Amino acid sequence: MCLFVIGASAASFAQGGGQGRTPAAQLERLKGAVTGITADQETKITAIYTAQTKTMDSLRTAANGDMSSMREKMQPMRAATNAKIKAVLTADQQKQFDAMPQGRGRGPGGPGGAPAN
Fold it and tell me: In the chain, how many domains are there?
């Protein structure tokens, strides 16, 4: 039974599943912390999160399970993603974005993706 659960979790992780990893889930988390997101901003932010997800999936595949290597490469990518998102936001929204809880799975970068300010 344990092996089944581990296997199912690994498959979900490999397919980009898991809590908060989809662009839609990331956008919803962002909208929960930042008020006044417009439809135009949603479109732009979704595109940013979609590109990040594709790149992260490629890094995950290339790292072949080497979490240390992955973290080193993903951290600057998350910082770049956060900078792109902040560029789409108004000054007031940027302050709210910066105030978002940091830590594993709570930032706009998804699991492990704390905002890089």
Answer: 1
Res 107 pLDDT > 70? no
* Residues of the domain holding 68: 20-117
Q: Residue 7 falls within a domain, yes or no?
A: no
Burial 12-32 (b: 16+ CB within 10 A, else e): eeeeeeeebbbbeebbebbee
The whole-angstrom distance between residue 104's C-alpha and the CA centroid of its chain comes to: 11
The candidate with the shortest Cα–Cα distance to 46, out of 79, 22, 23, is: 23
Does residue 12 belong to any structural domain of this protein? Answer: no
pLDDT tens digits, residue range 16-59? 444 458 999 999 999 999 999 999 999 999 999 999 999 888 88
Residue 29 tokens, joined: 């988390």
Residue 81 maps to a domain? yes
The separation between CA 9 and the C-alpha centre of its own chain, rounded to angstroms, equals 19
> What is the DSSP code (8-state) at residue 102?
P
Whether 13 is in a domain gets the answer no
